[in-house]
Every structure is written in C-alpha cells, then in structure tokens.
Amino acid sequence: MKTTAAVMRAHNQPLSIETIDVDPPKAGELLLRMAAAGICGSDRHVLEGHFPGAVPTVGGHEGAGVVEAVGEGVQGFAVGDHVLQTFVGPCGVCASCRRGQRTFCTLRWTTDGTLPDGTFRMHAADGSPIGTLLGLGSFSAHTVSPARNCVVVPPDVDLACAALVSCGVSTGVGAMVNVARTQIGDDVAILGAGGVGAAAIMGAVIAGAGRIIAIDVHDTKEGPARSFGATHFLNARTQNVAEAISQITEGRGVDRIVLTLDRIFPEHYKLAIEALAPGGVAVQVGSTDHGMDHLPVSPNAFASRQVSFTGTVYGGMNPEADARRWLELHRRGALPVEKLITREYEIGDINKAFDDLAAGRNIRGLVRFE
C-alpha cells in the first residue's frame, strides 16, 4: 500500500516528505494506521547521527495508532484495536525477560532499519528499501511493527495521549516512581523541564512528593511546570541552583533528583550529587555530552553522605506493564498527559516541529495524522 512518510535521507538534513510503499505484515507483525507521533529529543539525536539510525529510514518511536492488519501467528490483537508502540520489544524468553527485566531483553530492538527477520517493510518509489527505526517508523501514516512492540490501548483514551505514554511519559514518570523510588514527603528536583521532565514532575505528584523543584533555562517552562505540580521553579541561567535548592530545603538538600536534560554536561552531574540530601538518589534519564565517559565526581561525595547515582532507559523494567499503569492513571484523571501537548503539527510540517524542539518552544510537539 502507498502512504505518506517523513524519510531521513541524510543526517543533519531536513526530513523528506515522500509517498512510499508499505508491505503487508509478516508473521508476528501488525500493520498500523498511525494516529499520532510525539517529537522526542531522541528523534533529534537520531537525525544528528548521535544515536544509531540507518539511512534512509523513517524515524519516530513515540507513536499510537489503529491495527489495520494482523500477521500470521499474532495473538492478543485484532483489526480495529487501538495500540501504542514501545521502542523496546521484549522477546519474553531470554534470560533478562525471564527475570522480569524486559526492558533489557537481548533482542529488544534492531538499529539497522530492518524488522526482526532482517528484511524491510518500507520502500521508496523506485523500490529501494527504507529502514524502519527500531521497528516502529512512527513518522509514517502507515507502518508495520512487531506485535511485541505494541500494547493495546483502551478505546476511550485519546491516541495522542497514548503516543506520549509510549515513551516520554513512561520514561519520566517511571524514572521518578520506579527508579528513584520517591516516597511520600520526599523533596525532589527535576533538572530539565521538557517533555520527559514534565512527566517526571507528574510522577513526583503521583508519588506524594513534598517540595517539587523544576529547573530549566527557559522562563517559558515555569508556567507549565507549576501546572504539572512543581512547587518551585529555578532558572539555571539566572540563579545559583545549588544555593537555591539549599535555601528551599533548609540546607538539607533533595531526596531525589532526576536529570532529564536533552544533553547532560559534567557540571550537571556535580550539581546533582551536591544537591542530594543524605541517602538521596540521582537518576540519569537524558544523554551525556558526546565523548563524556566518566562521572566528574569524587567517590568520596557518595560515601560521605551515602548518596547514590543510577540511570534508566525506559523508566522501569517492564514497558508494557508500566504503559498500562500510566494509561489507567490517565483515565482516572491522576495523570493529565494531555497537558504535555504544546502544539500539534501535520506530517508536512515535521521539520518545523524539530526546529521548535531544538529552540525549547514546546513541552511536547506532536504529529497528528488524523
């Protein structure tokens, strides 16, 4: 079938809007009619060549849509089901999956643009293959994904909200709830108030945190951050963040700090560790500055106050189970995902969406297909 997609033909170049051919799903796969796809910082890293991504390829990994065809052997899905995509597709049988660590499945993704069987489902007008990023290809009006990368969504959930749950919400909320293990009354800080950081703020509210300190370099992020539940906002360009955190917490520091910056530099690690209260936990979510290969912090900083540092890929060990948890909280009104959507774009305006992402104009931009 023919469909419209945003194709990455080269790194650091605008995406090409093209009519492409999409093959029917093979065994274990689903054909999806996409409804929405979030514009995530990780997509930008792929475009810039910092994350693995074949060329040419259709990017996008934060998507949701409707099942239009079911491949051989697929169970648990039917034509017409609403689904979200997860960028991790657990096999269910490897050692990590058997231990419940499904995010770290040994077969969780492919980075060469092929589907798990090593072949392509997308093709250009001349018949040449086009890759499907992580088996998802959310920036196409139709795509084929492995069924193990999809989660059925209740039909009353807006698929735009489901798309955000598929990555940014699960990562941010999960980082605060599952990984940092925030407790009732904890003081927390979120370094970077974009889409994932905003979700981390919501996660802090769900966990019952006390003071919630959002930190960013754009004053435009203050209003949204407070609407998500932040009790304080600091502008890192104009304020001494370490001193401000100390003042807010009466000199004790925060119990949890989550680093959700698009790119984390050495000074951010120093700030995170110094800002922790005794026994506190720092969680890395964003990517490090390119070429950085060690923590620029003395081991004594950890031992002297019994603080710890960890990281997360997806905000937890089980993407499907967490997606269902966050969707249910959203349905109950406890996780207002819709507030994260700053602006919607048509697929033809996707390059504008990436420009807005780079400029920090959005909490989350979203491509709406229907």
TrEMBL record:
SMART domains reported in the protein's UniProt record: PKS_ER (SM00829)
Statement: the UniProt record of this protein carries the keyword NAD: yes
InterPro entries: ADH-like_C, ADH-like_N, ADH_Zn_CS, ER, GroES-like_sf, NAD(P)-bd_dom_sf
GO molecular function, one term: S-(hydroxymethyl)glutathione dehydrogenase [NAD(P)+] activity
Keywords: Metal-binding, NAD, Oxidoreductase, Zinc
Residue ranges occupied by any Enoyl reductase (ER) domain in the UniProt entry: 10-367
Cellular component annotations (GO), alphabetically ordered: cytosol
Keyword Zinc: yes
Pfam families: ADH_N, ADH_zinc_N
Record-linked PROSITE patterns: ADH_ZINC
Biological process terms in GO annotation: formaldehyde catabolic process
Membrane-spanning ranges: none
PANTHER family named among the record's database cross-references: ALCOHOL DEHYDROGENASE, ALCOHOL DEHYDROGENASE CLASS-3
Name of the molecule in the record: Unannotated protein
